[in-house]
Amino acid sequence: MRYIGISIRYVKNASGKLLIVFRNATGKVAERLESGLYRVRVLVNNTERFEDVSENIAEELFNGRTAPIGGDTKARLAHTAEDTAEKVTKELLEKAESLVKKARSEASKFANDSKVINKVAEFLSNKKALEAIGGEEGLEAIIRANVWAGCSTCGKATTSFLKNMDEYLDDVLDFVSKYREVDGFDDVIRELKKLNKDNTPNYAVEGAAFMLSKMRKTSEITPQSVKRFDARFESKEIDCSNCRFDIELFQKNVGDLKYLEYKSYIDASKISLNQFQSYLQSVNTLGELRYVFDISKISASKIKGGIKKFFTNNEDEIFKTVWKNKNLRDHLFNTSNYPKNISQNKLKERSEERFSRNAE
Predict the structure, then answer these.
(1) Do 45 and 102 touch, CB atoms closer than 8 A?
(2) Which helix (H) or strand (E) holds 226?
(3) Could you give the CA distance from residue 253 to residue 64 in angstroms, rounded to a whole number?
(4) Pairing relation of β-strands 72-77 and 38-44?
(5) Burial of 65: CB neighbours in 10 Å, binned 0-12, 13-18, 19+
């Protein structure tokens, strides 16, 4: 088939609609209409003409198969469209290969990996997504910065918790397509491009990559639910000028999930005290806060053990912060729920238990 090298993914946007408009010397040979149909130049009963077809029919045609159109059970894409589509795809793949070599080196094994090249080509065909990350230079920077990524033909990533480059770029493209209009988007993209001056990996990339991967699997996170990314806390009481949260969600009701903090750590006890105190000042209940750990790096039991150690080492500071937040204090220490003679240590234990339940 002439279309064996063409995938619909090259011509779809994030919502699954065809994007590329093919042209030849005489004009358009395919385009998507406002009605949702596709106007395609086809060969019907040996006559070349335009037909408006459904997305399913268009997909069949662009994959080199025949389809029933206008009384012809084996109508196919016209030769003029075939030639144009083949040329566009070939040029796109060549451009993708050149970009990968520029990002990593002429000898990079990524340039010979079809999955990586296909994913880069898909990114290049999505003009809005490409523009949002800084164009081709931005895509090069993102590929260059993920130093440890592997690929299907050149071996797995040098660390077990990282995805292969094509899978990583799929996460990036999904994030860009969905969230480019959200406040703080540019800050996340900057994290994805970070590389140390000596070209060694910057751990910010690893953390951001983990967040993008987990976001796709979290039902509460949608383009409509995210208020902002990677911003400073509004509270000034804690000396935490560099403390930032990963994601803030819009809330419909008090108690709904508000903040998500992603930790690509091997030791949960090492979370920042100042950042945690800033969160405690900003929530009404612990249900509004969720810490998410990378379980490919650290087991659930070690997460809980690390959190327990963190609370033990910082119990006075944590307790004082909670006590200053009246809403959180009343939620955690509603005296009607506890014995009248409960000790302060018991109250601290209850606080630790509740936070542990909200970490994953």
Answers:
(1) no
(2) strand 226-232
(3) 52
(4) antiparallel
(5) middle
Q: How far is CA 38 from the centre of its chain?
A: 29
pLDDT value at residue 260: 96
- Token readout for 7 is 């995938």
Distance (Å, whole) CA 154 – CA 152: 6
Return the top range by mean pLDDT from 78-82, 102-106, 140-144.
Answer: 140-144
Choose between 352 and 165: higher pLDDT: 165
Rg (CA), the chain: 26
3-state secondary structure (DSSP) of residue 252: coil
Tokens found for residue 96: 């993708």
231 DSSP β-pair partners:
245
Please say whether the beta carbons of 260 and 290 come within 8 A: yes
> How would you class 320 by CB atoms within 10 Å of its CB: exposed for 0-12, middle for 13-18, buried for 19 or more?
exposed
Does the pLDDT at position 34 exceed 50?
Answer: yes
How many residues appear in the chain?
A: 360
Contact yes or no for 207/264 (Cβ under 8 A): yes
Structure tokens at 70: 């206008």
